[in-house]
Model the fold of this input.
Amino acid sequence: MKNPFIIIALIMAVMLTGCTSSDIVLPKIENDDSVMYISHLKENAITALDLTTGREEKVSLPFRFSSIVEIKSGVYMASVKEEESLYEVNIKENKISPYMEIETGILELKYDRENGLLYTANGKTNNIQVIDIEKKEVLKEVRVGEYPSKMVHHGERLYVLASKSGEINVMDTSTNNIMNSFSVNERPEGLHFDGKNIWTGGHGATGELNEKVFAYDPETGEEVKIVTTGLMPIQISQVNGDSFIYVLSHGDHSLTKFNADTYEVEKKINVGDNPSFMIADGKNLYVSSLDGDEVFVLDKDSLDVLDKYAIANGPYLLFKGGVGE
Done:
């Protein structure tokens, strides 16, 4: 007969941790405020990196995240392209848990915190799903162009980049209907709304290599500005809507900063081998170098490298509490 005290101890341990058999325990580092979480692309794993000490803790996962978005402080929603589930990542409770069933093919997530709505972009079905996150209920599916890979939410507009059909679909979030669609540059990638224009970059036409980002009037679809930045720009961002736009380009391994008012390039630097993802907070930028196996910390104003960390096996998605776009 099994020792009853051992059984009771095991039950109490499960109750105390708050975890179920389907939960995955996150790597734990005590100083939560300084921790960056890194999802890998070349292995199924997630790393917790203490930006103060450089200490790392890694745990294996049964999948790789395709997108992650903050729902509230310390709680994130994540998608896995091949999985029929969304996952809640709770860094306060130190766990990853299945959240709700969903179709496979999710490439991108965006969250409307004011209305509690999650938008999912499905590259398999070419649909945007509108989800009431609290009720775990799909409110509507909206058909868009081929392979919706990026989304930007601003006010009552959701901008969707359909990369294979080379178009931007503009959805009115008050009705969840597509109100406008227009063609953009060939093989586009990256999407950003600066308050007036919608920007995209990408690889360029077959046989050509693009080194520009393009601004479009979201009402008319007219191309209004072109800025030369780096080879194959894949991500375009601003920090808290300030006057500078940052462009990450993986073709020439660069990060470019240009003025959003004058469109003049202020600075361009190298950020490792195949930079693939970027986030920011009030004063710093954080960039993952997929093939260089590094994560860079940069001053957002000077673009000086403040620190860099060796992170093996393809660091990709980054998330950190209180971090903006």
Observations:
- The longest strand covers residues 95-101.
- The radius of gyration is 20 Å.
- The CA atoms of residues 278 and 287 lie 4 Å apart.
- Residues 1-17 have pLDDT under 50 and may be disordered.
